[in-house]
């Protein structure tokens, strides 16, 4: 409702206000900034003399300054397209799932695919004595703290089948 009221107030008498602005002879100029007075002062000869006069005290300060500069090492830019990775990552083959061509074939060390994550969570849930955090970390090239966090905070869904109710129970 507020949007409609705002729109009505904006569009009220808009054509007349536009014609009034267009029919003005010349728009009023913006106020001048105080720095425009420097142009007036620049024409005076004593100020020009002050500008071009050498100050010996400042020149001696300038002679005492010593600056060392070193060029950065020159990088050779390859004319080929594409972004090159900054460091070469080690890859490992994944434990392939059931999707075949859609499965991820290689994963960086320290990472796992979604299929692998579901497999390791399910294996740990079904056989926690065999699939311990240490064994999972070694098997999938992961850090132990990451595996412990994964096993603690991510739990796969369980499917529970309830017995069919008889007509008498309904």
UniProtKB/TrEMBL annotation:
Subunit structure: Binds calmodulin. Interacts with NDUFAF3.
Top-rank lineage group of the source organism: Eukaryota
Classification via Pfam families: UPF0240 (PF06784)
GO biological process assignments: mitochondrial respiratory chain complex I assembly
Compositionally biased region (Basic and acidic residues): 16-27
Region (Disordered): 1-43
Gene: Ndufaf4
An example Gene Ontology CC term for this record: mitochondrion
Span of the signal peptide: none
Family: Belongs to the NDUFAF4 family.
Name the record gives this protein: NADH dehydrogenase [ubiquinone] 1 alpha subcomplex assembly factor 4
């Amino acid at each position: 409702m507020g949007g409609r009221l705002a729109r009505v107030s904006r569009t009220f008498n808009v054509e007349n206000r536009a014609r009034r602005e267009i029919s003005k002879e010349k728009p009023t100029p913006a106020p001048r900034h105080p720095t425009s007075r420097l142009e007036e002062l620049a024409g005076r000869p004593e100020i020009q003399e002050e500008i071009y006069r050498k100050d010996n005290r400042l020149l001696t300060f300038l002679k005492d300054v010593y600056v060392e500069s070193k060029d950065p090492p020159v990088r050779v830019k390859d004319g080929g397209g594409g972004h090159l990775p900054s460091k070469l990552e080690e890859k490992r083959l994944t434990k392939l799932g059931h999707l075949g061509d859609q499965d991820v074939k290689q994963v960086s060390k320290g990472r796992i695919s979604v299929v692998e994550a579901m497999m390791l969570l399910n294996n740990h849930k079904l056989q926690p004595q065999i699939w311990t955090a240490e064994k999972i970390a070694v098997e999938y090239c992961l850090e132990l703290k990451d595996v412990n966090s994964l096993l603690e905070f991510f739990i796969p869904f369980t499917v529970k089948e309830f017995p069919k109710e008889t007509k008498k129970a309904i």
